[in-house]
Amino acid sequence: MVVKETNKVDPVWDDLDSTLGQLFMMGFDGTTVTPQIKTLIEKHHLGSILLTAKNLKSAEDTTKLVYELQKIAHDAGHPVPLAIGVDQENGGVNSLFDEIYIRQYPSAMGLAATGSTDLAYEVAKATAQEIAACGINWIFGPCLDVLTNARNQPLGVRTSGDDPQEVSAFGVAFMKGYKEAGLVTLGKHFPSYGNLEFLGSALDVPIITESLEQLSLSALIPFRNAIKHGLDSMMVGGCAMSSADLNIMHACLSDQVVDGLLRNDLKFEGVVVSECLEMEALSHNIGVGGGTVMAVNAGCDIVLLCRSFSVQQEAIAGLKLGIENSMISKDRIRQSLRRVLNMKSKCTSWDKALNPPGINFLSTLQPSHTALSTKAYNSSITVVRDKNRLLPLSSIIEAEEELLLLTPLVKPLAASAASRALSDSVNAGSPEPAVWERSASVMSGERVFRELGRSLARQRSGRVLHTSYTANGLRPVHENLINRASAIIVLTADANRNLYQQGFTKHVSMICNMQYSAGGEKREKPLVVVACSSPYDFAMDTSIGTYICTYDFTETALNSLVKVLYGELSPSGALPGTISQSQKLHTSRQHWLVEAFNDERDAHALDTLIKTVIEASPPSQRSEISSATSNSFLLHHPEVLESHFVVRNSSTQALYGFCSTYFFKTTGTGVIGALFVDPARRKLSIGHSLHNRAIRTLLQREGIKRFQLGSRLPSIFLGIPTGHSSERKRLRSWFANMGWNTALSRPVCSMVARNLLTWAPPDGMAKSLQSAGAEFDLVYGWEHSGPVLDHIKTSNRQGLAEVYKLALTDPTACGIIRAKRPEDQAIVGTVVLYSMHSHLAEFVPAIKDLNEMVGGISSPVISPAVGEYSTLLQGLILLGMRQLKQQGCNACVLDYMDGDGNFDGLSTMGFDVLHNFEEVSCDAATWTMVPPA
């Protein structure tokens, strides 16, 4: 039933109920046809169905289920077959799994790691052939999101990476493969889920903060190219959009996004599908009936409702009411109908729908698809670093020695909103866990990791010890096994979102680095870290010497990993996106003479430059350097080498630009602590020239291991300032062009608690701290330095040792608050407490900025082995606030806090964010300088 050139449709569609049914896609619970879905098809003429992991047991059962659904529609008199869609992205997101007939392939990012769009095309085609054989005609892919912020994003390896051109190339390759197998395609998640900001609860809608112009320059590129190559349909997300030019609660309900951006600007003429209107934030804020009307009026052709029969009926009733009340025109309905019918004509007919190829065809595909799966996984495994040449393991571990495997307890990625709901129901005890294990993402993490342990054991004659780890951290059982084993493998899965994995791995690394032989010589124990989902876990952390990425933790991926570990396979994968590209400096248009800063000559001119930069900022954008002076940048610290640079007018002595650098010998970190240019002389390459000179100087430091943007000492700029959206984008873009991988930035901030003299701790906090099982005390002076400095070695963050040494040598104005285990008095947490008269306060402009009696709390270090991180941190800060209050301070500054943390606890204690920053680090060994033109 195809669209006629006259833009009219067959008279059969004069029946409103039949027409409206084509404008919905719905799901249902169960692996067989339910009365509810039967009613929706027969009575409400439902035109499209979404099948998820909860519906699909096996290829054979799926074929039967799809046939039954189509037969019901046929017998009910539907003019055209049902469009039946699934998420089948591979990697960790497969709705349909069958050990015999359905092959497993790498995730989108895993395929990007192969570097081959041809291989991506073949995998996409094979995937589509398999599900098409079961009668499915619509694949929910490709995923076209660009990870413009790689950290802490839920999409992870479901997207090809952070480079819009690479995401675009692989997205088009996937799309062409799906089409070749006869399926229609769906791009997602427009206008991009690649840099969502999450506010907390399920009722808070994730937000896109980029402006339309910023989206157009990056995130929209893959969508635009997919449209040019014939994308059939597009899913528009339910996220909010908030920037200077947009304020939208839900993208899929906005005509600005659907009719404006997608239809008019990007010229998309295919079918637009809304995000599931059952998502809690949307249904709670608007209601499903009203949301359906808004979605259709915005330009959506199909409204998605995943599972609840009562909600689905509410949506149908809402749409009918919208038409009756003339809120939606008949022309608008017919427009969507034409698009839906046109899409269906490309992928299905009654003959095709009632005669799927089925199991017999799948049997013929199996041999070639098995070979393709093995080839794809073997080509994706990436050895990012192997500094000490630990691979293959057979060359460093004897047959009689033991190998230890440490794996996290994780659940597979949910394929969709619907299967995520299933995951929640499993946690509540229904359905049977065994069903979940087999139906989504192949196997649960625990089961697949057990199989990995067996595979490792089968490949060697020595023993393989295997245990898991959790958010409880490193336990005595782990320590005993580490001491026994001759080599250790630690697996992580999205450690950037599961921070306990990061802490655990770093703790294991520290133990391995502190091993000694029987003769007393230091002997580093071999450690291999494997990121089996997001490659960003330790991509930039060179303290992890051997680092491998598999991009998913399916059994097939881990089989290829075993081959790499034992030298049976030479890995050829490369990290996708900008992270793997050589960091290059763009050649400046002009090369300014950069001179070393001379305190005597330049101090007054620097004070003038700082004042000029502050005055040029809008009143709403209070500068982070508002209380800084030229002295604020001069540390004069024995363990920090500092070099500062200026571009100046030698005739007038005026400074046009300034850059400060510090080299912290204890961690081998070279830091750019500040870089600013006279606002009247920006875009003349002064900043480029200063930056290049700074990097060249830091590269020459003996023992340099990494570079960092942002310094905790002095803490004028803790990183790239991010307090204002437009300025943040401009600065991130500038530093990215200079070679910094801003996609891997780490949020940090300074905070302040005011009115300390009338402050009291929250009710119950003191009591809850007692349950943390720690004793707290406050010590002053260098005699306490030994245990404190040993404790802070559990963190390799820049500037820690220097801050603590400053505090320990200034006992009249600084102290250290310690948290200790009662049983052995071992230190498990510390913070620095300092007054506004301390030497340390000179390097914290926020202290002067408050213009009242103020004290500071700095540099918390909590042992990685401690599970009660938040409780201990609150305890240390609470004691600090009490002490400052006793000293007569009316405000307390936290001058360096981890922005990834949950600030609920700190805000409850009275703290507000003062300044936000993004700290960026990179490996000095991989930095390449571009010679001047």
Automatic annotation (TrEMBL):
Signal peptide: none annotated. The keyword Disulfide bond does not apply. GO terms for molecular function: acyltransferase activity, transferring groups other than amino-acyl groups; hydrolase activity, hydrolyzing O-glycosyl compounds. Keywords: Glycoprotein, Glycosidase, Hydrolase. Residues 16-342 form the Glycoside hydrolase family 3 N-terminal domain. The keyword Glycoprotein applies. Residues 643-709 form the N-acetyltransferase domain. GO terms for biological process: carbohydrate metabolic process; peptidoglycan turnover. Belongs to the glycosyl hydrolase 3 family. This is Glycoside hydrolase family 3 protein. It comes from Patellaria atrata CBS 101060. The lineage of its organism: Eukaryota, Fungi, Dikarya, Ascomycota, Pezizomycotina.
